[in-house]
UniProtKB/TrEMBL annotation:
NCBIfam families: gatA. GO terms for cellular component: glutamyl-tRNA(Gln) amidotransferase complex. HAMAP family: GatA. The gene is gatA. Residues 25-470 form the Amidase domain. It comes from Microbacterium faecale. It catalyses: L-glutamyl-tRNA(Gln) + L-glutamine + ATP + H2O = L-glutaminyl-tRNA(Gln) + L-glutamate + ADP + phosphate + H(+). Heterotrimer of A, B and C subunits. PANTHER family: GLUTAMYL-TRNA(GLN) AMIDOTRANSFERASE SUBUNIT A (PTHR11895:SF151), TRANSAMIDASE (PTHR11895). The lineage of its organism: Bacteria, Bacillati, Actinomycetota, Actinomycetes, Micrococcales. This is Glutamyl-tRNA(Gln) amidotransferase subunit A. It comes from the Bacteria. PROSITE patterns: AMIDASES (PS00571). Allows the formation of correctly charged Gln-tRNA(Gln) through the transamidation of misacylated Glu-tRNA(Gln) in organisms which lack glutaminyl-tRNA synthetase. The reaction takes place in the presence of glutamine and ATP through an activated gamma-phospho-Glu-tRNA(Gln).
Length: 499
């Protein structure tokens, strides 16, 4: 039998259901893969060696004739922003080193109920603040395509784990592109659902009006299968939508026939600029494939998109400043061993426990919310947010989906932008508008850049609650591109380990 770590989740699930493979075998194969390559990649902060016990329990239930959900027995990686009862939850920060949660995040609980097997917690930029996973307190994650390059951020660990065949599926969070931008640079699939479509309960909050949990995978169908598991209303999350969601996996299966592209109206945003030549060429080639399959490509105007990054980097730090106030050395997390008042201990704890990027954004956010500056900065940024939402409304009155490159460049080298925060922030110029508006987005591989041979992603955006449309379109283009390529994109050998 072929290497179990190379199988898409859907294929692995079929083998498990048919009894050709056990969950223990699949889980051990992925744990072995992690042992073999993660020393080089650093995608995982914690590996769940007890995962085989859960896998054995799934196998026993299946052997007893119990009808199990489709993904039962499939291994799953979990971004460390999501709390878990059986593994530490650090959000990539020293201030939460070793923290054990008394409860599971809702999406983790749903994954367990569906029979998925969590095999570890993945690395991330500290408190999800970053675009390269270089801001983790536990060292950077490296891109499986080139170990000297970044895997994107803040969810680079989840994307790298999937790209390196350490896990077939992963959970991520997307506040301004933290699922889609890593997917772009690692040749994987990443989805940001409609805001409120997936519970945020148990996700360590960065910016509560922007954060959204979503799937990471190697195929559109696999993402849809995991999205089906985690979607739905949660009474623990006040922002959770009361909405009946269709099956996203079925939408992907429908789209893979390609019929959905005939007559599809695809919008290209004329004001969106700043992409490298390799990224732009790959994007234009994918758009030409859509047109050849019957899609109509038109230009749309979104004049306020150019202000999205500036508005985002006022709204996000302001909300982060508020959310991270809970790390005060009193309630939970680390406490500096110093004498003095509560304020002294708090200051020493936050100085020792928080990294420079987190401190930078807390300071920015506190300033933007301070007396005399609230209206000038935070208030005006929220007005820009409303204008961006209106841009989307007007565009979607004329087109079914919007297409953009998922990020401005391919994976840059580790350390290349660490000393230039503005250059780092610009990595999210194409993904941020969706978070500000609450609309869903998907990034799928569009090919390899001609200039450096690294992965490029194409992003599709749809109106709020039309996530299924993204799966249909994404799966349709994926099928056409894979036919052209002769198979899925696969990274070169990693650290001498053949895949």
């Amino acid at each position: 039998m072929s290497d179990l770590t190379r199988l898409p989740a859907a294929e692995l699930a079929t083998l498990l259901a048919d009894g050709e493979v056990s969950s223990v075998e699949a889980t051990r194969a992925h744990l072995d893969r992690i042992r073999a390559v993660d020393g080089a990649v650093n995608a995982f902060l914690h590996v769940n060696e007890a995962a085989t016990d859960r896998a054995a329990a799934i196998d026993a239930r299946r052997a007893a004739g119990e009808s199990l959900p489709e993904l039962a027995g499939v291994p799953l990686a979990v971004k460390d922003v999501l709390v878990t009862t059986d593994m530490p939850s650090t959000s990539g920060s020293r201030i939460l080193e070793g923290y054990m949660s008394p409860y599971d995040a809702t999406v983790v609980a749903k994954a367990r109920a569906a029979g998925l097997v969590p095999i570890g917690k993945t690395n991330m930029d500290e408190f999800a603040m970053g675009s390269s996973t270089e801001h983790s307190a536990y060292g950077p994650t490296r891109n499986p395509w080139d170990l000297e390059r970044i895997p994107g951020g803040s969810g680079g660990g989840s994307a790298a784990a999937v790209a390196a065949f350490e896990a077939p599926l992963a959970l991520g969070s997307d506040t301004g592109g933290s699922i889609r931008q890593p997917a772009h640079v690692t040749g994987t699939v990443g989805v940001k659902p409609t805001y409120g479509g997936v519970s945020r309960y148990g996700a360590i909050a960065l910016a509560s009006s922007l954060d959204q949990i979503g799937p990471v995978s190697r195929t559109v169908l696999d993402a849809g299968l995991l999205h089906d598991v985690i979607a739905g209303h949660d009474p623990h999350d006040a922002t959770s939508l009361r909405h009946e969601w269709p099956s996203f996996a079925e939408a992907a299966r429908e789209g893979s026939t390609g019929e959905v592209l005939k007559g599809l109206k695809v919008g290209l945003v004329k004001e969106l600029h700043g992409f490298s030549q390799g990224v732009d060429e790959s994007f234009r080639s994918a758009v030409a494939t859509l047109e050849a399959a019957g899609a109509e490509v038109v230009e749309v105007s979104a004049p306020h998109f150019e202000y999205a990054t500036a508005a985002y980097y006022l709204i996000l730090p302001a909300e982060a400043s508020s959310n991270l106030a809970r790390f005060d050395s009193v309630r939970f997390g680390m406490r500096a061993d110093v004498a003095g008042t509560v304020e002294d201990v708090m200051a020493a704890t936050r100085e020792a426990g928080l990294g420079p990027e987190v401190k930078r954004r807390i300071i920015l956010g506190t300033y933007a919310l301070s007396a005399g500056y609230y209206d000038a900065y935070y208030g005006r940024a929220q007005k820009v947010r409303t204008l961006i939402q209106r841009d989307f409304e007007r565009a979607f009155a004329d087109v079914d989906v919007i297409a953009t490159p998922s990020a401005p460049t391919t994976a840059f080298k580790l350390g290349e932008k660490l000393d230039d925060p503005l250059a780092m922030y610009a990595n999210d110029l194409a993904t941020i508008p969706a978070n500000l508006a609450g609309v869903p987005g998907i990034s799928i591989p569009s090919g390899l850049a001609a200039d450096d041979g690294l992965p490029v992603g194409i992003q599709f955006l749809a109106p709020a609650q039309e996530d299924a449309r993204l799966y249909r379109v994404g799966a349709a283009l994926e099928a056409l591109l894979i036919d052209d390529w002769g198979g899925p994109l696969v990274a070169p050998e990693l650290n001498g380990v053949s895949r």
